[in-house]
Amino acid sequence: MTLNLPAGAITDAATISPLALFLQADIVVKGVMIGLLLASIWTWAIIIGFSFSLRKASQESRKFEADFWKAEDIDRFYESRGKAEFPAAKLMAAGVGEWRRSTAQRVIDRDGTRDRLSTAMSSAIAAEIDRLSDRLNILATVGSVAPFVGLFGTVWGIMRAFTSIAAEQNSSLAVVAPGIAEALFATAIGLFAAIPAVIAYNRFSHGINRLESSLTRFADGFYATLSRELEAQR
Amino acid sequence: MERAEKIGLGVATAGHVLLFGLLSAGFLATPNPLKLKSPPMDVTLVDEVALQATAPQVSTQPPPPSVAPEEGPTQEARPAPEPAPAPEPAPVPPPPKAEPKPVPKPVSKPTPPKEVAKAAPAKPKPMPPKKEVAKAPPKPKAPPEKPKAAVAAPSKSDAKTKADAKAKADAKAKSDAKAKSDAKAKADTAARESGAGKADKPKGSLLGKDFLKGIDTSSDAPRRPAPPLAAAMGPQQKAALDRVISEQIYPHLRLPSGADVEQLVALLDVKIDRDGRIIGKPSVIDIQGETASNRPQVSVYKERAIQAVMAASPFRNLPPEYYDQWKWLSPLRVYARKAR
User: Fold this and answer.
1) Which value does ipTM take for this structure?
2) Measured between CB atoms, which of A14, A53, A56 is closest to B30?
3) A169 inside domain
4) The predicted structure's pLDDT at residue B46
């Protein structure tokens, strides 16, 4: 018996050609495969973009922090480097801005200023972390759902294979094998999308946590400095 | 940030396309060293097997029993006289005659008969021997193989001995006609043995002439050809008949689904009338190929086999001359693996 393979499909049984498997598949399985393929592409796009932005943020923040502690004058340092677009700079900008607004008044409420500084900097950290981890939920979703979607495609494809067995009254391997192979291909694509997504999610979560804690440390140090300055302010 | 994501999207898309392109091109395909070569072969369908027997038919009759006279060693003696002019047959026939005749008579009366014969009016007596001598020569003519000289010589000697015997008998009782007639009878038998009896003599068997009287020897020579019996159906015809029947059954056979169903063979008992219709309902005699895995399907398969035979019921193309062969098919094997 011969399967009517579309032109271009490789009919050699020994070759696991994704194109041939895809072209043989049922329309539902095809949809599942296309969706999973897009999810995989999107996952990798996020992984690549995220690793760039996270590394850049971490490196810039570390460097900024190191430079900050070496700086003689906070105001001058802020004027020269505080306008940059990375978390530590944003944090510093939030702290310095709040400081300037609080100390501009004639009577300085020290406790109120400390509270506002603390709140402003922690909210700046939270905003930066939120912005950075915006895409992480997509990785989490793909990592957890893609295997199930692939499994759905497999189940559907195997159901179809059984239907063809019933229709042909023939349970030979030649009838069963192509359907099951194309069905399993859906699960393969699902896992292909899910595994990198899960790995990247865990790794990026860890990176975000590290960045957050380092930002928090920097914010604490900066807060302590500002608090001391507030003591000295008369 | 947007820039990084755009770069990521482009790189990811390019990577996926590259990966799937490589897979499609057989990049990761395992080389298959066991590529089976299947050269085209000529297949001859056996549909051309004729239903008519063309092979020489072997007779079912046993050969007629071989009878004893054929086996006698004396049969060799018969051809011998044919080529031989005189010497061979001559010595052979005389001994039996010479022995019985001279022995009883001369021993009983050695000397007196001669005197008596001389003294006695022996004239009328030599006559009968002469007659016999005259008789004897024409007789050997009947068996033409016998040379006359060979026959004449013994007959003459016979005649002499008989003449002697008669002379003795006459000497003993001249007026005794009885003795004469006895002697004549003896002479006659002797003449017969020497002349006409010669045809039988060479057989030399201890069996009498009428040994084969009760046996139908007519069947010996003309061997009757075996009648064209339906029972003489050859293996080719049997195969052709099987094929004709299975061709009509298997299109109707639908297998139950299940593991190892193909191994089942149903043995049916089917009776068919001359029109090819099934008489009654076929019954399942036996099931073969039953395993633990296809046991649940056995009963269904029995039903399906019967249904298939019933559905094929007016069987076509069955050779009417072999009706005896297909009127009662028991067992008719229905193979699950032949189902279409």
Assistant:
1) 0.71
2) A14
3) yes
4) 67
Does residue A108 belong to the interface with chain B, where contact is any CB pair within 8 Å? no
Q: Which among A37, A169, A170 is the top mutation candidate for probing chain B, defined by the most B β-carbons within 10 Å of its own β-carbon?
A: A169
Mean pLDDT of B172-178: 53
Using the predicted structure, report yes or no on whether residue B121 has a pLDDT greater than 90: no
Nearest to B26 among A15, A50, A53 (CB): A15
Q: At A127, give phi and psi (nearest 5°).
A: -65, -45
Per-residue H/E/C for chain A = CCCCCCCCCCCCCCCCCHHHHHHHCCHHHHHHHHHHHHHHHHHHHHHHHHHHHHHHHHHHHHHHHHHHHHCCCHHHHHHHHCCCCCHHHHHHHHHHHHHHHHHCCCCCCHHHHHHHHHHHHHHHHHHHHHHHCCCHHHHHHHHHHHHHHHHHHHHHHHHHHHHHHHHHCCCCHHHHHHHHHHHHHHHHHHHHHHHHHHHHHHHHHHHHHHHHHHHHHHHHHHHHHHHHHHHHCC
Topology of domain B233-338, CATH: 3.30.1150
Which residue does chain A place closest to B34, by CA atoms? A14
Q: What is the pLDDT of residue A201?
A: 93
Tell me whether residue A167 is in a domain.
Answer: yes
In a domain, A62, yes or no: yes
A150/chain B closest Cα distance in angstroms? 17
* Rounded-to-integer distance, Cα A65 and Cα B37, Å: 72
For residue A187, the enclosing domain spans: 24-232
